[in-house]
Structure formats: C-alpha cells, structure tokens
Design a protein that fits this description.
Largest sheet: 8 strands, parallel, barrel
Helix content: 25-40%
Distance between the termini: 27 Å
Oligomer: single chain
Number of helices: 11
Number of strands: 13
Radius of gyration: 20 Å
Strand order of the largest sheet: 1-2-8-9-10-11-12-13
Shape: globular
Order of helices and strands: EHEEEEEEHEHHEHEEHEHHHEHH
C-alpha cells in the first residue's frame, strides 16, 4: 500500500505531492462517463489522498409509507442534462423524510452512494495500514449541502479534524488518521452559521476561479487553497492528451502571479470528451512516453513556482535548486482510473533527487 506519512510527520501538506481521484465516485456508466473502477477504500489503498465528489439526491426504489426513497449519490453529468426539483423524500443517508432537491439525469450517470463512500474513508483511516494517513473529500457542484454535512458529521464523527486551521500549512502529524470533508464556497456560504471547521467541515477554494474568492491567497483562510483546473474542449475531439498538456502548462505558468509559496498547486492528468471512451484514452496517457510527458510537465510547473517565488532561486536546471524547490510545487495530480501503479508514479515525485529534477 502506498503511504505518505513516512515523508516526515512535520512536513506540511503543501510540502508533499500526492494523487487525487477525478470524479472519484463514478465507477459505472457508459464508456464516456465512467472515470474510476475502484471504490473509495480501494483508491485510498492505491495512494489517492484527495477525492473529487459531486453529490446529488437520486430517487431509489421503494417507499416508506407514502414517501418515496432517495439517496445521496455521486454523479457525472453536465448541468444541461440535469433536472432538479424540490421534493419530500425518505433519505436513506439520514434515515428520515426530508425536504430536498431531487435530481434526474437525461445523460451521464449516478455513481456510488455517499454513505458507503464515507464509511470506506472512515474505515481506511481506522485500519492498521491507513491509521497514519489522511483523506481529503472535495465536494463541489453539489446540491443538498446541509444533508451532505449531516451525513459527513454522523459517519465520520470520530475521524474528523474539528479545528479552525489553514490546511495548506498543517503538518502531516495533525492530519494523521483524519478524513476532512472540504466544501466549495457555495456550500460554505449555504451552511454559514450552521456548521463549519469546528464541526469538522472545512472550506476549499480554487484561486484560479474568481467566484471562489478571487486570486489572493489568505493565510487566515480556514481550509485548503489551491490553484488549478481540468477539462479539455468538447469541440476538439482530436489529440486530447496534447490539448490537456498545453492547458496544464499554461495554468502552471500562470501560477507565478499568485505571489505566495503556501498555495497548493493542482495538476490534471485527465482528459474529457462527449463520446470517446475515457478509459481507453486514459490507458494511453499512462504508457511510458506519456508518463515521461507528465513528469516533465510537473517539473515545468515546479520550475515556475520556484523561479517566480523564491528570490534565492538558481538558474533552471541547476542541481543545487533541488532541495530548496520542493517547497514550491504542483502538490496534487488528479487522475482517472486510479490504481497503485499510477499513484506510485505520483508518490515517486516526492523522492526525486536534485540530479533527477535537473534531468526532467
């Protein structure tokens, strides 16, 4: 099993590089929808430490008296193919009838149930092999934020980090054995005054997105702050790998304007499309030549961080830069179809020697 704690218990979260799971809960659906084939526990064991989760309420078979049933589930769909309506449903995640936003999909798919994913995350950090590790659950583009928060605080109660803290600079020893639900600005705003960091629900904001709070890093922000964005144009079906590489290089180059070394970088080694098989395209992204391209892209992003933020930095390619520049990097590499082989490549970025970095 891949672990990160041995990198150093006093290392801050933004000192390490780790794998992220894109659309982590979508283990089924059509070839142009499915993005993972392992459950949350399997992805965690493989080395994933941050999980991209989009959650909505789906109707499920059965009735509770006169009330239909529903479940909070991961989904993968464009907004134009979603129909949201206010309904009263017996929500299995909380065990009672509630007023909620019910979602129907005309394209895309629902994935794993939220409660099962939370149980998998909890069980992983409570296991012998996972007890020193941490898991970050990144909730975005969700509905029913209050019900998601209730499910998180109920299932994860004993493994939540219930404290106001800037997660970017939090040491691994404080995160050990914890699962951290991270709510996007929309969720934080909806739950303001009701639930927050002291309940174990933290914020996350993307400094690339002005709607997430603007481009300024705030040392006092309670949660995680990162910079990055995935996705390729659905109107350009050819050379998706090249499209993604160019987009990510441009984004990483733009990170130099952030002006603070504590920002965490997020790089996507994923591609999107309307019709093509995500898995088939993803397999190609992880052949030997494209793994080399990914490592080089990461190193280029690392160079941008160092050269722009460290006034003592040496010229690019100098081996002496290696030990210092690990503090300034794309920290998260988001992937589809996470497995141990892919995560081991990402985990290995932490162990590159100065000469390895210079060679990249």
């Amino acid at each position: 099993m891949i672990t990160y704690f041995e990198l150093g218990k006093d290392k801050q979260l933004n000192d390490i590089v780790f794998a992220g799971s894109h659309d982590a809960g979508i283990t089924g659906g059509g070839k142009n929808v499915q993005t993972q084939d392992l459950d949350i526990g399997g992805q965690a064991s493989a080395g994933v430490r941050i999980f991209d989760l989009r959650i909505a309420a789906a109707t499920v078979p059965g009735k509770y008296g006169n009330v239909k049933g529903a479940e909070l589930r991961a989904f993968h769909a464009d907004g134009m193919f979603m129909k949201n309506e206010s309904k009263t449903r017996h929500l299995e995640d909380v065990g009672r009838p509630v007023d909620l936003t019910r979602t129907k999909l005309s394209a895309g798919a629902f994935g794993m149930g939220l409660t099962k994913m939370l149980e998998d995350a909890r069980d992983f950090v409570q296991s012998k092999s996972g007890s020193s590790e941490f898991l970050l659950l990144k909730f975005d583009k969700c509905t029913n934020w209050g019900l998601i928060a209730e499910a998180c605080t109920t299932v994860l109660d004993k493994v939540l980090l219930k404290a106001d803290t800037n997660l970017n600079i939090t040491p691994l020893k404080a995160l050990s054995g914890k699962v951290l639900p991270l709510f996007s600005p929309g969720g934080v705003k909806e739950l303001a005054g009701k639930v927050g960091p002291k309940d174990g629900i933290h914020g996350i904001r993307n400094l690339y997105d002005k709607e997430s709070g603007g481009l300024a890093y705030s040392p006092s922000f309670k949660g995680l702050q990162y910079y990055g964005k995935g996705g390729t144009s659905v109107m350009k079906p050819n050379d998706k790998i090249g499209q993604n590489e160019k987009k990510q290089a441009k984004l990483l180059e733009g990170a130099k304007f952030l002006g603070d070394p504590d920002v965490m970088g997020m790089m996507y080694w994923t591609t999107t499309g309307l019709l093509e098989s995500i898995k088939k395209r993803n397999d190609k992204m992880w052949d030997a030549p494209n793994v080399a391209r990914m490592r080089k892209l990461w190193a280029q992003g690392l160079e941008e961080f160092i050269m722009q933020r460290n006034p003592l930095s040496l010229p690019p390619g100098s081996p002496a830069v290696g030990p210092a520049r690990k503090r300034f990097m794309p920290n998260i590499v988001m992937i589809d179809f996470a497995d141990e082989q892919k995560c081991r490549v990402i985990r290995g970025l932490n162990d590159l020697s100065p000469s390895d970095l210079a060679a990249l």
